[in-house]
Amino acid sequence: MKDTFLLDGSTIPFEPGQTVMQAALAAGHYIPHLCYHPEFKPHGSCKLCTVKINGRTVASCTMPAETGLQVESGIEELNALRRSLVQMLFAEGNHFCPSCEKSGNCALQALGYDLEVHATGFRHLYPDRPLDASHPDILLDFNRCILCELCVRASSEVDGKNVFALSGRGITKHLIVNAESGKLSDTDISLADKAMQVCPVGVILPKRAGFSVPIGERRYDQRPISAQALDDAPRQTDADGNCAACEGTP
Amino acid sequence: MSKKLRVATTSLAGCFGCHMSILDIDERLFPLLDLIEFDRSPLTDIKHCGPCDIGLVEGGVCNAENVHVLHEFRKNCRILIAIGACAINGGLPAQRNHLDLGSCLTEVYLTEPGLLHGHIPNDPELPLPLDKVHPLHEVVKIDYFIPGCPPSADAIWKFLTDLIAGKTPELGHGLIKYD
């Protein structure tokens, strides 16, 4: 008999050490998230994955799964909060989807679609954030940064290079490049790095590859992020390749 | 049959792409015209807005005239809808927002090559530009937003028919687009 908890009334099995988010995704149940990535230690900063457990709101990506938890996620109260978070992220940076080459592959945009966010509703800040085009193969467009730290984590934990960091506090917090000049060309980042693959938005971009996949045929054009995220989640499979945790889900 | 809904449309700091997308609903315009009639709109060339049920505004607010037109729409339209990326977040025109307006005009009309004896346009008929381009909701209350650059004809059709049927408009995957 495996340990289980309840998520929106469904029984979710879990392994010791798993978080609520990991167990839910492995069992085929989507919880919206932005800074969580299955290959990295949870960060708990974007708060999109906030769920209610025994009446308290907690980040499901950092909450250890426990037997008997009663977790609420897909309720309007939480989705309204998630919509506000997405709207604030859009208002804080310069997110002009029509001119962004990440459009259609962008997790922030796809979450907006999934949550039916039709407009930001807040006053836009229109910050001044110059590009860094110094590197011959890689472009940095800070206008779109949402401070998820996935590139920071990938560069230090996987690539062992520490190319990126966050600097400043509160509204002045921003992504920086760890080089004396502050320029990407003065780091040892390369196209093959993990840090090149994890940006959920359009900050870290390989040059000369922008529209190799046309708009309309991209990742989240095909299927919503709620379906894509489940495909990305690690599943426990038996010898025949069947997933014991996700019976009844595709 | 009940009275037709009166609909006004306009383009402020937009490119008329959203209006093209409205026309792109093609033959569905005929059933739509059984339900609505147009007031002020580039399609009718009526210059000022009378009392309307629905106002569709494309483009953001980039100059003084835009502000006046938007206030006229808000005053006359029971339901005001921002249509397209520019109306919703300023869009392409708002990409000047982190720059100083004076330096923009100086660079375009005075210091860049191409305009011999150029000067910054100052004809009194030209509306004065605002220092920033604003989304509509920063100037008046907006009731609904149809995102997209432009929203597809199908998205506009779904949104308007939901609204006319008295439902909360929903777009859903494939119709909701920001690009």
Notes on the protein architecture:
The complex is a heterodimer of chains A (about 250) and B (about 180). Chain A contains six helices and nine strands; from the N terminus they run ββαβββααβαβββαα. By secondary structure, chain A is α+β, with helices and mostly antiparallel strands. Chain A has two domains: about 5-75, Ubiquitin-like (UB roll) (Roll), CATH 3.10.20.740; about 95-220, Alpha-Beta Plaits, CATH 3.30.70. In chain A, the strands form three sheets. Chain A has a five-stranded mixed sheet, covered by helices on one side. In chain A, strands 6-9 form a two-stranded antiparallel sheet. In chain A, strands 7-8 form a two-stranded antiparallel sheet. The two termini of chain A are about 25 Å apart. The model of chain A is unreliable at about 245-250 (pLDDT under 50). Chain B starts with a strand and ends in a 15-residue tail after the last helix. A five-stranded parallel sheet of chain B has the order 2-1-3-5-7, with helices on both faces. Chain B has a two-stranded antiparallel ribbon with strand order 4-6. Chain B has one domain: Rossmann fold. With about 180 residues, chain B is α/β, with parallel strands linked by helices. The interface of A and B includes residues 109 and 112 of A.
Please supply descriptive tags for the structure shown above.
heterodimer; A: 250 residues; alpha+beta; Ubiquitin-like (UB roll); Alpha-Beta Plaits; 2 domains; five-stranded mixed beta sheet; two-stranded antiparallel sheet; 6 helices; 21% helix; globular; disordered C terminus; B: 179 residues; alpha/beta; Rossmann fold; five-stranded parallel beta sheet; two-stranded antiparallel ribbon; 7 strands; elongated
